[in-house]
Structure formats: structure tokens, C-alpha cells
Amino acid sequence: METRIFSKKDIEEAAQILKAGGLVAFPTETVYGLGGNGLDKEAARKIYAAKGRPSDNPLILHVSKMEEVYPLVESVPEKAKLLMESFWPGPLTLILKKSKIVPLESTGGLDTVALRCPDNGVTLELIERAGLPVAGPSANLSGSPSPTEASHVYHDLSGRIEGILDDGAVGIGVESTILDMSTDRPTLLRPGAITLEDLTEVLGEKPEIDPTLLGKKMEDGFIPKAPGMKYRHYAPKAEMILFCSSEEKEHEYKVSKRIAEYLEEEGRGFPREKIAILCAEETKHFYQEMAEKEGIILKVLGRRDEPLSMTHNLFRILRECDEGGIELILSEGYSEEGIGFALMNRMKKAAGQKIIAV
Ligand code: TXA
Ligand code: MG
């Protein structure tokens, strides 16, 4: 099939495709989603096939307003309601017990459902016009970084879906925060732009954190509760190594020195033009001379003092590394405060947890 590119003026046509059981990728404030009718088993099957995704990995259902959640769940606990009122539309996904109308095919066989109201005007109108909850995993092929521009979706899924609703580059660049509200204590399953601090303020208590987000390993029997978090996600083709330091003082200088040492020693096996260093605007001067002299690619992720600039660029830069045939990525690590927790979660996954402590 030929994948069509839709713009704002084609929302009605895109909505008709969803209603008819077809697939349309849609923009959100986090990453692009791959949309289909969330109440239709057959659409769910098509989504898994288009992404090449294991069908035990449940889908998020996107709604255009809070009221649309009620038919999809057994009940809405008071605290979940409070969170929706505080953060929707926005980058927060809530897990609740599902109602009968949500097919098990959409939830990977679970009796819970993930719900989110995205903060993007075009998509809110799309959902409203389609008149159904829109199932939407990130619109990438399974295993590659989530798409932050329509061109990324086209690269991964052209020929596999009916259309892409293009609304330019997304803002945040990493997927929504996922909070499980189906258990006794709210539990964070995936960090995102709604931070632990934000959630704590509204809930009046700090949520539990899935142990795998805190470095507990699957080899040791810790299985992430969000099934999707167990796959090698967001991964570039290159081998990626993160250089992290917990020390505040002279941290940046030490990290850059250790990256230079690594290049001299272990990095010798790689052609220089196949190596990329990922760094921040504030620290790029540490690498510039070496990169120019040796022909190493330098990629600036964003500003340390504006972590959102880093989440915004991360997946695009990982894709650029793939396209440039990069074989080794050496990256600085950053603070895990606030949205830094989400940034570092994705960076660690991209690195397959290969971290060198400095
Ligand atoms: O920002 C986002 O959330 C994007 C945009 C498109 O909305 N969507 C997204 O979907 O990231 P996806 O499918 O790539 O990631 C959804 C995650 C997966 O890790 C999945 O396992 C988890 O949510 N999930 C979905 N339903 C769940 C459930 N009932 N219980 C636990 N985890 C669930
Ligand atoms: Mg995904």
C-alpha cells in the first residue's frame, strides 16, 4: 500500500481511515504514534504487524478528553481523576483496570489498560472526529528509536500503513510518563516529562518506582511491569557507551578526559569517521579540537541547563548516527534530576546499559 502524507486540512480523511479499521500515524507532544481503532481486535493485529512488535506488548489508548475514559475502565479512582485534571492533555499515561469493551488484543492479554490524552491540537481533533479511542504505540519499527518527526515514521513504516498526519517535529521527544494506578500504591513504570516531583505534588505521596528503573536487572529476576520496557528499545545500530559520574566537582572535565582515554585505548578498532561523541553545548569545547584533528563526529545533544533540549534531540540524533553509518557512540551522562530521569533512562537503554563510571 502507498502511505499518504496528510496535513491539518486532511484530519477528516484520516479520521475516516481509522473508523474503517485502517492505520494512521499521528503527532503528539512526546513522539509520533501509530494509530488504529483501539476497540477493534483486527486493528490491533495490524498495528503489531506493521511495527513488527511482539503482540504481548500492550498498546496505549488515546482519548480526546477525560470523559472518554469512563467506558474503557472498571472505575476511575479519585487519585487518577486528580492526575488527569492536573496533567491532561499532557505526557502522562495512566494504567487502570479495563472494562469489557477493551479487547485483550489491545492490552496484550492484560486486564488493565493504558490511557493517555495527548497535548496536540491536530491529534485531539483526529480522535474526536474518529469518535473512538485511538490505540497508539510509538510509530517506529520495533527496536528502533521512537519517531520525533513525520519523516522518521515514513522511513520506518512507509508501505505498511495508510497515512501519516504530519504536524512537524514534536516538542518533548521522549515517550510519556507511565503511572500504574491499578494497584494499591501508584507505581512509576516509565519516566517521562511529567516528573516524579510533579506526581508527588499532586498525589501527596511519592509513587513507588518499578525496580528495573533503578538499575535492578532482569537477569536477577526483576521484570519490568510495563512489558515494553523489557525490550532493547530506542537502540541505535552502533555500540553506545555512556560515561557517567556521580561527582559534582570537575565531573565534566573528568568525563571528557575518560572519553579521550577510551578513544586512545579501546576505541582503536573503529575507523575514526565511524565514531560519534555525544555531548552538551556547555562541554563541547572539551572535544572540539580532538574531533577535528582525528575526524571524529561531534554531536551536540542540547544544553545541560535545559534538559528538555536534550530529550527533544536524543532520538533524532540516534537516527542520524544510524544514517551516517556510525559504529561507536561515546556519550556523556547527565543528571537524573527531574526530566533528567527520563533522559537517562532512554540513554541507558540505547547504550544497552553499557555504562562506564568515571
Ligand atoms: O508518549 C507516548 O506514550 C507514546 C505516544 C504515541 O503517545 N506512545 C508510546 O507507546 O510510547 P508505546 O506502545 O511505544 O509504549 C507503551 C508502553 C509499553 O512499554 C507498554 O508495555 C506499556 O506502555 N503498557 C501499555 N499498556 C500497559 C498495561 N496495561 N500495563 C503495563 N504497561 C503497559
Ligand atoms: Mg515504543
Describe the structure.
There is one protein chain. The chain is of the alpha/beta class and 358 residues long. The strands form 2 sheets. The protein has an 11-stranded mixed β-sheet with strand order 1-8-2-3-7-4-6-5-9-10-11, sandwiched between helices. α1 packs across α4 and α9 runs parallel beside α10. It starts with a strand and ends with a strand. The mean pLDDT is 94.
Short description:
This protein is of the alpha/beta class.
What topology emerges from the helices and strands here?
Elements: E1 4-6, H1 11-19, E2 24-26, E3 33-37, H2 41-51, E4 60-62, H3 78-87, E5 92-97, E6 112-116, H4 121-130, E7 134-135, H5 150-157, E8 163-165, E9 177-180, E10 187-190, H6 196-203, E11 208-209, E12 239-244, H7 251-264, E13 275-280, H8 288-294, E14 297-302, H9 307-323, E15 328-332, H10 340-350, E16 355-357
Parallel strand pairs: 1-8, 2-8, 4-6, 5-9, 10-11, 12-15, 12-16, 13-14, 13-15
Antiparallel strand pairs: 2-3, 3-7, 4-7, 5-6, 9-10
Helix pairs in contact: 1-4, 9-10
The chain binds threonylcarbamoyladenylate (TXA) and magnesium ion.
Residues 28, 30-31, 33, 57-60, 93, 95, 107, 110, 112-114, 116, 118, 136-138, 175-176, 178, 189, 225-229 line the site of threonylcarbamoyladenylate (TXA).
Distance between the termini: 50 Å
State Rg. 21 Å
Ligand inventory reads: threonylcarbamoyladenylate, magnesium ion
Strand count, sense and barrel status of the largest sheet are: 11 strands, mixed
**Strand percentage:** 15-25%
Shape: globular
How many extended strands? 16
Question: What topology, given as strand order, has the largest sheet?
Answer: 1-8-2-3-7-4-6-5-9-10-11
Low-confidence stretches: none
